Amino acid sequence: MFGVAVQAVRMNYYPACPRPDLVLGLSPHSDGSALTFLQQGKGNSVGLQIWKDDTWIPVQPIPNALVINIGNIIEVLTNGRYKSVEHRAVTHKEKDRLSIVTF
């Protein structure tokens, strides 16, 4: 009925960087999928940021928790009632970061 479904899993490793102002881990974007599930590694630095009220807001990692982002498909299906979140990943001066994402 719906055709072929695609599920992807991606691991992103962001090493510590002495000059985080010179690099960007992952450029700003919204996800084309319906939902994105993100597991941030234990003891990771803050690296995920969301765009809200014209500023980048850091998302603090919570141990054993998932971050769930609304994607573009949900925004379209709900006629904009639920918004796809623009986000990015940044590096940290002293800590590395590992994220596992499925979408």
UniProtKB/TrEMBL annotation:
Keyword ATP-binding annotated: no
InterPro entries in alphabetical order: IPNS-like_FE2OG_OXY, IPNS-like_sf, Oxoglu/Fe-dep_dioxygenase_dom, Plant_2OG-oxidoreductases
Signal peptide positions on this chain: none
The entry's keywords: Iron, Metal-binding
Pfam families: 2OG-FeII_Oxy
SUPFAM superfamilies cross-referenced by the UniProt entry: Clavaminate synthase-like (SSF51197)
Transmembrane segments: none
Gene Ontology molecular function: metal ion binding
Fe2OG dioxygenase domain residues: 5-103
PANTHER family in the record: OXOGLUTARATE/IRON-DEPENDENT DIOXYGENASE (PTHR47991)
UniProt protein name: Protein srg1
Taxonomic source organism: Phtheirospermum japonicum
